DNA sequence: CCAAAAGTGTTAAACGTACACCCATGT
DNA sequence: ACATGGGTGTACGTTTAACACTTTTGG
């Protein structure tokens, strides 16, 4: 089997060139169809899903490694990426269980350390600009609703939960809308993004008022045609004002 | 020199029993004399100060290691301790510079990895309950004003800055007063704690009003006698209500 | 013409902020 | 008696929260 050899090579290289016992996990958030999504990978020849992750080269900063891993494993480049927690429990997974689930032969398994400390990053991306692509370790790469995840490998369900919690807390200071939405969007779309992340309904009149009062978005003449029912106006973020407001911490949303 | 041998033993043990290339740094905050303080250690036979830190045993969770290190190196036990950031730059210190500053012989130095990823924790402690004690690696352990730190070893000045920033942001959700103040305290003391962390003056009338409105502190009949001038009332945190308010995120302070 | 989503304004309550004087105490 | 820090209330402006009807559109 060619795949087994690739696996062995991968771990052998990591062993030689990467920091031992340390890894990175990336939680990539996107928003589409009024749902917050996470990008997951399905490992080759299995039905097992997990977060994209990888190792850190010995001469590479952890932040740079996170960007590289994202790029290598999902094709996504240069985006909003933030460290949110380091997962250091002594038992985060069972090596034998993982090895069984992934159909790994013993030699490959043994290369996987018994214990790994993992640094968690989350990314916010424009769903419409991502073309999920599987890499040599995986068969499939696709978006999953945050609300409806399968049981994942390792402690990845927990990692996603912590990322979500961080995202909620940081809603007020992070350019969430700016990174998760396409360039042009409607007010209801923005509202549903906030509702999804905050996990509670918001009043459309108050929401619209507040968002527009922040002065970080502008309404275009254009309307979104083609959908059924009344055509909503399109909006666009004013990048400069958004950044300025973020710096001043003006984007709290209670 | 006995110390050199101890050093070598220490690193040899760490090499054998600890996770390689990973360390923990602890930023311990205290409050006294209207100043926010950090606990620092002076390395033996030098004038070089740094944060208490250490390594993680191979069978120990990172959180537990942080508590153990704190206890071992400062005598402080069982307190508020929170991971705040992982420092993963590829060049966080110069091994030769460190070795020179600490008067380390080559063999000991070579045991120190060329690169270490460090997980930062910050602790909030009751200043009055801590008896700073140096350990076998250090000559002295004492509090320093956050506003007036010396140039520290490694990237520890930067680590403290990030911890402070985190502390400021989290003032609203963390039991800062509860952990940094003695059981009984006066309103001006609490106010100065907040002023110090937020780094700006607050109006005493508004501060008192707001704090008491939160319903998490109770005024005792007792007053603090002995100081000159008018005797201030003593207050105490209502632990239950404090925890409840924290859960509900009601402790924002703008 | 109908169903469904988009869009919008007013009011009351809560909260934040600015501001100044008297009081208690030890020396 | 006095110097010093402790203690307190009011008024104004801003922000939030609650609330319902009309408009637009495609089918």
Which descriptor suits the 3D outline of chain A?
elongated
How many strands, which pairing sense, and closed or not: the largest β-sheet of chain A?
7 strands, mixed
By CATH, the topology of the largest domain in chain A is Nucleoside Triphosphate Pyrophosphohydrolase
Unreliable stretches covering 5 or more consecutive residues of chain A: none
Structural class of chain A: alpha+beta
Helix content of chain A: 25-40%
| CATH top level class name of the largest domain in chain A | Alpha Beta
Beta-strand residue percentage of chain A = 15-25%
Oligomer: homodimer
Structural domain count of chain A: 2
Q: Provide the CATH architecture of the largest domain in chain A.
A: Alpha-Beta Complex
Q: Which two protein chains have the largest interface (Cβ within 8 Å of the partner's Cβ), and how many residues from each?
A: A-B, 24 and 24 residues
**Strand element count of chain A:** 10
CATH superfamily of the largest domain in chain A: Nucleoside Triphosphate Pyrophosphohydrolase
Please compute the radius of gyration of chain A using only Cα atoms: 20 Å
Tally of DSSP helical segments of chain A: 9
Give the integer mean of the pLDDT values of chain A: 90
Separation, N- and C-terminal Cα atoms of chain A: 55 Å
InterPro entries (chains A, B): NUDIX_hydrolase-like_dom_sf, NUDIX_hydrolase_dom, WH-like_DNA-bd_sf, WH_DNA-bd_sf, WHD_NrtR
Protein name (chains A, B): NUDIX domain-containing protein
Domain Nudix hydrolase (chains A, B): 19-168
């Amino acid at each position: 089997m060619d795949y087994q050899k690739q696996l062995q090579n991968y771990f052998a290289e990591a062993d030689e060139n990467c920091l031992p016992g340390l890894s990175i996990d990336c939680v990539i958030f996107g928003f589409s169809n009024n749902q917050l999504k996470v990008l997951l990978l399905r490992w080759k020849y299995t039905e097992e899903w997990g977060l994209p992750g990888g190792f850190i080269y010995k001469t590479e900063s952890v932040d740079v490694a996170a960007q590289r891993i994202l790029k290598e494993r999902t094709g996504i480049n240069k985006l909003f990426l933030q460290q949110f927690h380091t997962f250091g429990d002594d038992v985060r997974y069972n090596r034998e269980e993982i090895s069984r689930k992934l159909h790994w032969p013993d030699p490959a398994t043994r290369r996987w350390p018994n214990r790994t400390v993992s640094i968690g990053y989350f990314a916010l991306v424009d769903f419409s600009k991502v073309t999920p692509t599987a890499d040599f370790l995986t068969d499939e790469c696709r978006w999953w609703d945050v609300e409806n995840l399968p049981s994942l490998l390792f402690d990845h369900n927990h990692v996603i939960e912590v990322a979500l919690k961080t995202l909620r807390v940081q809603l007020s200071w992070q350019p969430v809308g700016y990174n998760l939405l396409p360039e042009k969007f409607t007010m209801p779309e923005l509202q549903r993004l906030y509702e999804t992340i905050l996990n509670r309904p918001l009043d459309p009149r108050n929401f619209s008022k507040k968002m527009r009062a922040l002065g970080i978005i502008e309404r275009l003449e254009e309307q979104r045609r083609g959908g059924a029912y009344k055509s909503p106006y399109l909006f666009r973020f004013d990048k400069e004002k958004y950044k300025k407001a973020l710096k001043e911490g003006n984007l709290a949303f209670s």
